[in-house]
Design a protein that fits this description.
11 strands; 12% strand; Rossmann fold; 2 domains; two-stranded antiparallel sheet
Amino acid sequence: MATKKEAAQKADDGASGAGSDVLREPAERLFARELDALATTDKGERPPGWRLSPRAVLTYVMGGKAGEVEITPKYVGAPRLVEIAIATLATDRALLLLGEPGTAKSWLSEHLAAAITGDSQLLVQGTAGTTEELIRYTWNYALLLAEGPSPRALVPSPFYRAMDEGKLVRFEEITRCPSEVQDALITMLSEKVLVVPELGRAVQARRGFNVIATANTRDRGVNEMSAALKRRFNIVVLPVPADLDTEVQIVSRRVRELGGHLRLPAAPPAEEAVRRVVQVFQELRRGQTIDGKHKLKSPSGVLSTAEAISVLGSGMALAGHFGGGKVTDRDLAAGLLGAVVKEDQKDETVFVEYLENVMKKRGSEWSELYKACKELV
């Protein structure tokens, strides 16, 4: 029979997602304990349909305390940007998170939805193949043929459900969608209604409904949003981390979380290893060394914070399964090469020049990483 301590630990594991066989728990389950603590201690005024007050949502995202419960930061950046995003969602304007790939747009949108409505899974992924039906509604064709148009035959989209239930819906990479699909949003965002002519009815959005969309600045021009659609959004630009220490902090935290969720059989890399990877990314991304003394060629790909997390996560997997359980420079080298030389073979030349002109000359702290990278190019 389990002891009280074991039972309590099991309950905590269930609330945090630890011990689950699900590869990736949604934020509202993974951080259920924090959200419950905030809901219990929250004394602020809550907008209609919200689980938490705007101040409590900010605490959830940026970190703090809820009674005796420590609230871990979910986003490292300017609090004012998060305040603007939260305030926007409390109005009738939709929110567009804009920025370079890897600036935590999807991560922030998921946590905002989890904190505000307790459901981050009402999601539309924008692609070239996204159709208007995926935004509005589709039909169960077996029932449609048997009964004709009926409420039973209708398959609601995430937008339909969000309007009907008064929740937030997330639209990822909206500029990847064709323009005519994007413009299907205009009536829903302005009139707050979704018409179903086949049933002679309309779904009126309940209080609490709103939209969080994301778009990459690299995608501008793919399917540029119309002026009419842009007017329905407040735009918050999420910047790339400006300084080395901030990005190291973000990457270190996410790598620890990643290793725990995936149960990787290796310890998180030392801060020195994280700092070296992040520094390589920042210097190649900026086209100059951190000290500004040397100009560099930049690769064609996006060396985002998310890519740095991936490199270090892959290093943990290599160290755990094929090494001694401790991440070494050799474990990181393969990930670095794959991140830099991805979209254009010419980027290999850029990487080799960086190795020879910068990394090689940095002394003993960088020598092992230099040698490991040279073995691969």
